[in-house]
Protein backbone atom coordinates (compact mmCIF):
# COMPACT_ATOMS: atom_id res chain seq x y z
CA UNK A 1 0.00 0.00 0.00
CA UNK A 2 1.81 3.09 -1.29
CA UNK A 3 0.85 6.42 -2.85
CA UNK A 4 1.91 4.85 -6.17
CA UNK A 5 -0.36 1.80 -5.83
CA UNK A 6 -3.17 4.07 -4.66
CA UNK A 7 -2.78 6.44 -7.63
CA UNK A 8 -2.80 3.51 -10.08
CA UNK A 9 -6.55 3.12 -9.40
CA UNK A 10 -7.59 6.75 -9.53
CA UNK A 11 -8.57 9.55 -11.84
CA UNK A 12 -9.09 13.20 -11.04
CA UNK A 13 -12.60 13.89 -9.69
CA UNK A 14 -12.50 17.34 -11.33
CA UNK A 15 -11.12 16.81 -14.86
CA UNK A 16 -11.07 12.99 -15.19
CA UNK A 17 -7.38 12.66 -16.06
CA UNK A 18 -5.32 9.95 -14.36
CA UNK A 19 -3.87 10.78 -10.96
CA UNK A 20 -0.19 10.20 -10.18
CA UNK A 21 1.62 10.08 -6.86
CA UNK A 22 3.57 13.30 -6.30
CA UNK A 23 5.57 12.06 -3.32
CA UNK A 24 4.04 10.04 -0.47
CA UNK A 25 1.28 12.41 0.57
CA UNK A 26 -0.03 14.17 -2.54
CA UNK A 27 -1.81 12.93 -5.67
CA UNK A 28 -2.09 15.13 -8.74
CA UNK A 29 -3.27 15.20 -12.34
CA UNK A 30 -1.69 16.82 -15.39
CA UNK A 31 -4.20 19.71 -15.19
CA UNK A 32 -2.70 20.77 -11.87
CA UNK A 33 -5.39 19.53 -9.47
CA UNK A 34 -3.92 18.32 -6.19
CA UNK A 35 -5.31 16.02 -3.46
CA UNK A 36 -3.86 15.00 -0.11
CA UNK A 37 -3.46 11.42 1.01
CA UNK A 38 -5.07 11.38 4.47
CA UNK A 39 -3.11 10.54 7.62
CA UNK A 40 -4.92 7.21 7.64
CA UNK A 41 -3.62 6.51 4.14
CA UNK A 42 -6.70 6.85 1.94
CA UNK A 43 -7.25 9.28 -0.92
CA UNK A 44 -9.88 11.84 0.05
CA UNK A 45 -11.52 12.73 -3.28
CA UNK A 46 -14.76 14.29 -2.09
CA UNK A 47 -15.50 17.34 -4.19
CA UNK A 48 -18.47 19.66 -4.09
CA UNK A 49 -21.34 18.83 -1.84
CA UNK A 50 -21.49 15.14 -1.09
CA UNK A 51 -24.81 13.56 -0.26
CA UNK A 52 -25.18 13.14 3.49
CA UNK A 53 -24.51 9.47 4.06
CA UNK A 54 -25.88 7.92 7.19
CA UNK A 55 -22.87 7.81 9.49
CA UNK A 56 -21.56 4.42 10.55
CA UNK A 57 -20.51 4.52 14.20
CA UNK A 58 -17.33 3.19 15.74
CA UNK A 59 -19.56 1.02 17.93
CA UNK A 60 -21.09 -0.64 14.85
CA UNK A 61 -17.66 -1.25 13.35
CA UNK A 62 -16.25 -2.63 16.62
CA UNK A 63 -19.23 -4.99 16.87
CA UNK A 64 -18.19 -6.69 13.62
CA UNK A 65 -15.00 -8.02 15.21
CA UNK A 66 -16.53 -10.56 17.66
CA UNK A 67 -18.99 -11.76 14.98
CA UNK A 68 -16.25 -12.59 12.51
CA UNK A 69 -13.98 -13.94 15.27
CA UNK A 70 -16.78 -16.31 16.31
CA UNK A 71 -16.98 -17.66 12.74
CA UNK A 72 -20.53 -16.56 11.92
CA UNK A 73 -19.47 -15.65 8.40
CA UNK A 74 -16.72 -18.20 7.72
CA UNK A 75 -18.89 -20.16 5.28
CA UNK A 76 -19.80 -16.92 3.51
CA UNK A 77 -16.12 -16.00 3.22
CA UNK A 78 -15.45 -19.47 1.77
CA UNK A 79 -18.24 -18.97 -0.78
CA UNK A 80 -16.77 -15.62 -1.76
CA UNK A 81 -13.29 -17.15 -2.02
CA UNK A 82 -14.65 -19.86 -4.32
CA UNK A 83 -16.14 -17.42 -6.83
CA UNK A 84 -13.34 -14.83 -6.81
CA UNK A 85 -10.93 -15.58 -9.67
CA UNK A 86 -7.44 -16.68 -8.63
CA UNK A 87 -5.42 -14.82 -11.25
CA UNK A 88 -2.12 -13.70 -9.74
CA UNK A 89 -2.42 -10.10 -10.86
CA UNK A 90 -6.02 -9.64 -9.72
CA UNK A 91 -7.16 -6.11 -8.95
CA UNK A 92 -10.11 -6.27 -6.60
CA UNK A 93 -12.31 -3.28 -5.93
CA UNK A 94 -14.05 -3.55 -2.56
CA UNK A 95 -17.33 -1.67 -2.83
CA UNK A 96 -18.57 -2.95 0.53
CA UNK A 97 -17.43 -6.05 2.42
CA UNK A 98 -18.45 -5.51 6.08
CA UNK A 99 -15.46 -3.17 6.63
CA UNK A 100 -13.01 -5.54 4.98
CA UNK A 101 -13.81 -8.50 7.25
CA UNK A 102 -15.10 -10.67 4.40
CA UNK A 103 -12.31 -9.77 2.01
CA UNK A 104 -9.38 -9.77 4.47
CA UNK A 105 -8.88 -13.54 4.76
CA UNK A 106 -9.21 -13.91 0.99
CA UNK A 107 -6.59 -11.29 0.21
CA UNK A 108 -4.26 -12.89 2.75
CA UNK A 109 -4.17 -15.93 0.43
CA UNK A 110 -3.65 -13.83 -2.71
CA UNK A 111 -0.48 -11.99 -1.85
CA UNK A 112 0.02 -10.46 -5.31
CA UNK A 113 -3.50 -9.15 -5.69
CA UNK A 114 -4.13 -5.43 -5.42
CA UNK A 115 -7.23 -4.10 -3.70
CA UNK A 116 -8.99 -0.78 -3.30
CA UNK A 117 -11.65 -0.16 -0.64
CA UNK A 118 -14.14 2.50 -1.77
CA UNK A 119 -16.69 4.19 0.46
CA UNK A 120 -18.27 7.43 1.58
CA UNK A 121 -17.52 6.99 5.29
CA UNK A 122 -13.98 7.78 6.54
CA UNK A 123 -14.41 5.30 9.42
CA UNK A 124 -15.48 2.45 7.13
CA UNK A 125 -12.75 3.09 4.54
CA UNK A 126 -10.05 3.25 7.22
CA UNK A 127 -11.33 0.08 8.91
CA UNK A 128 -11.57 -1.75 5.57
CA UNK A 129 -7.96 -0.85 4.80
CA UNK A 130 -6.85 -2.16 8.18
CA UNK A 131 -8.81 -5.41 7.88
CA UNK A 132 -7.90 -6.25 4.31
CA UNK A 133 -4.59 -4.43 3.53
CA UNK A 134 -6.32 -2.54 0.72
CA UNK A 135 -5.66 0.90 -0.63
CA UNK A 136 -8.50 3.26 0.27
CA UNK A 137 -10.67 5.83 -1.50
CA UNK A 138 -13.12 8.18 0.18
CA UNK A 139 -15.54 9.64 -2.39
CA UNK A 140 -19.16 10.48 -3.02
CA UNK A 141 -20.33 7.01 -4.04
CA UNK A 142 -23.72 8.31 -5.22
CA UNK A 143 -22.06 10.02 -8.21
CA UNK A 144 -19.30 9.13 -10.70
CA UNK A 145 -16.46 7.39 -8.91
CA UNK A 146 -12.98 8.91 -9.42
CA UNK A 147 -11.69 5.50 -10.48
CA UNK A 148 -10.05 4.79 -13.85
CA UNK A 149 -11.94 2.97 -16.62
CA UNK A 150 -11.21 -0.76 -16.82
CA UNK A 151 -8.83 -0.81 -13.87
CA UNK A 152 -10.35 -3.66 -11.82
CA UNK A 153 -10.58 -7.38 -12.57
CA UNK A 154 -13.26 -7.94 -9.90
CA UNK A 155 -15.72 -5.78 -7.99
CA UNK A 156 -16.90 -7.15 -4.66
CA UNK A 157 -20.09 -5.60 -3.31
CA UNK A 158 -21.52 -7.41 -0.33
CA UNK A 159 -24.69 -6.36 1.45
CA UNK A 160 -24.15 -2.81 0.22
CA UNK A 161 -25.83 -0.60 -2.40
CA UNK A 162 -24.76 -1.53 -5.94
CA UNK A 163 -23.93 0.77 -8.86
CA UNK A 164 -23.96 -1.58 -11.88
CA UNK A 165 -23.26 1.03 -14.60
CA UNK A 166 -20.29 2.34 -12.63
CA UNK A 167 -19.02 -1.17 -11.87
CA UNK A 168 -19.22 -2.00 -15.58
CA UNK A 169 -17.14 1.07 -16.43
CA UNK A 170 -14.34 0.43 -13.97
CA UNK A 171 -14.08 -3.31 -14.67
CA UNK A 172 -11.71 -4.55 -17.37
CA UNK A 173 -13.11 -6.74 -20.18
CA UNK A 174 -13.66 -10.24 -18.76
CA UNK A 175 -14.08 -8.84 -15.25
CA UNK A 176 -16.53 -10.15 -12.68
CA UNK A 177 -18.91 -8.50 -10.25
CA UNK A 178 -19.55 -10.43 -7.05
CA UNK A 179 -22.45 -9.52 -4.79
CA UNK A 180 -24.01 -10.97 -1.67
CA UNK A 181 -27.65 -10.49 -0.82
CA UNK A 182 -29.64 -11.43 2.25
CA UNK A 183 -32.35 -14.07 2.00
CA UNK A 184 -35.71 -13.79 3.76
CA UNK A 185 -34.57 -15.70 6.86
CA UNK A 186 -31.28 -13.84 7.30
CA UNK A 187 -30.95 -12.66 10.92
CA UNK A 188 -34.69 -13.33 11.37
CA UNK A 189 -34.17 -13.73 15.15
CA UNK A 190 -33.30 -10.01 15.32
CA UNK A 191 -36.70 -8.86 14.10
CA UNK A 192 -38.87 -7.24 16.72
CA UNK A 193 -41.65 -9.53 17.91
CA UNK A 194 -44.49 -9.71 15.40
CA UNK A 195 -42.60 -7.88 12.64
CA UNK A 196 -42.49 -9.74 9.35
CA UNK A 197 -41.07 -7.93 6.32
CA UNK A 198 -42.75 -8.36 2.97
CA UNK A 199 -41.41 -11.46 1.21
CA UNK A 200 -39.09 -10.70 -1.68
CA UNK A 201 -36.49 -12.64 -3.64
CA UNK A 202 -33.53 -10.29 -3.28
CA UNK A 203 -31.23 -12.48 -5.38
CA UNK A 204 -33.66 -12.53 -8.34
CA UNK A 205 -34.18 -8.77 -8.02
CA UNK A 206 -30.43 -8.20 -8.20
CA UNK A 207 -30.08 -10.41 -11.30
CA UNK A 208 -32.79 -8.27 -12.97
CA UNK A 209 -31.30 -4.95 -11.79
CA UNK A 210 -27.84 -5.57 -13.20
CA UNK A 211 -28.96 -7.39 -16.37
CA UNK A 212 -28.07 -4.58 -18.85
CA UNK A 213 -24.45 -4.59 -17.69
CA UNK A 214 -23.84 -8.07 -16.25
CA UNK A 215 -24.69 -11.67 -17.06
CA UNK A 216 -25.50 -14.03 -14.20
CA UNK A 217 -22.79 -16.69 -13.87
CA UNK A 218 -23.31 -18.64 -10.63
CA UNK A 219 -24.88 -18.41 -7.19
CA UNK A 220 -23.97 -20.03 -3.88
CA UNK A 221 -26.41 -19.90 -1.01
CA UNK A 222 -25.25 -20.13 2.60
CA UNK A 223 -27.99 -21.15 5.06
CA UNK A 224 -26.93 -22.09 8.57
CA UNK A 225 -27.63 -21.63 12.26
CA UNK A 226 -25.05 -20.44 14.78
CA UNK A 227 -25.28 -20.55 18.54
CA UNK A 228 -25.00 -17.07 20.02
CA UNK A 229 -23.17 -16.12 23.18
CA UNK A 230 -22.85 -13.26 25.63
CA UNK A 231 -20.43 -11.59 23.20
CA UNK A 232 -22.07 -12.25 19.84
CA UNK A 233 -25.69 -11.58 20.86
CA UNK A 234 -25.28 -7.85 21.63
CA UNK A 235 -22.79 -7.47 18.74
CA UNK A 236 -25.40 -8.84 16.31
CA UNK A 237 -27.85 -6.17 17.47
CA UNK A 238 -25.27 -3.40 17.18
CA UNK A 239 -23.85 -4.36 13.76
CA UNK A 240 -27.04 -5.72 12.15
CA UNK A 241 -27.32 -3.09 9.43
CA UNK A 242 -23.73 -3.73 8.28
CA UNK A 243 -24.31 -7.48 7.89
CA UNK A 244 -27.57 -7.55 5.96
CA UNK A 245 -30.12 -7.13 8.75
CA UNK A 246 -33.28 -5.20 8.00
CA UNK A 247 -33.49 -1.70 9.39
CA UNK A 248 -36.20 -1.19 12.00
CA UNK A 249 -37.08 1.71 14.22
CA UNK A 250 -38.18 -0.60 17.01
CA UNK A 251 -36.00 -1.94 19.81
CA UNK A 252 -34.13 -5.12 18.96
CA UNK A 253 -33.19 -7.69 21.61
CA UNK A 254 -30.13 -9.98 21.41
CA UNK A 255 -31.26 -13.37 20.09
CA UNK A 256 -31.71 -16.12 22.65
CA UNK A 257 -30.06 -19.34 21.50
CA UNK A 258 -29.18 -19.15 17.84
CA UNK A 259 -29.08 -16.89 14.79
CA UNK A 260 -29.82 -17.72 11.14
CA UNK A 261 -27.39 -16.82 8.39
CA UNK A 262 -29.11 -16.87 4.98
CA UNK A 263 -26.99 -15.24 2.30
CA UNK A 264 -26.51 -15.77 -1.41
CA UNK A 265 -23.18 -14.95 -3.05
CA UNK A 266 -23.68 -14.27 -6.77
CA UNK A 267 -21.06 -13.95 -9.49
CA UNK A 268 -21.80 -11.95 -12.63
CA UNK A 269 -19.75 -11.60 -15.79
CA UNK A 270 -19.26 -8.17 -17.33
CA UNK A 271 -20.97 -7.80 -20.69
CA UNK A 272 -18.77 -6.47 -23.46
CA UNK A 273 -21.39 -3.81 -24.10
CA UNK A 274 -24.45 -2.92 -22.05
CA UNK A 275 -27.64 -4.29 -23.63
ZN1 LIG B 1 -7.66 17.20 -12.68
TrEMBL record:
Coiled coil: none annotated. Keywords: Metal-binding, S-adenosyl-L-methionine, Zinc. Residues 11-46 form the 23S rRNA (guanine(745)-N(1))-methyltransferase N-terminal domain. One of its GO terms (molecular function) is metal ion binding. S-adenosyl-L-methionine binds at residues 73, 186. It comes from the Bacteria. Zn(2+) binds at residues 12, 15, 29, 33. This is 23S rRNA (guanine(745)-N(1))-methyltransferase N-terminal domain-containing protein. It comes from Amnibacterium flavum.
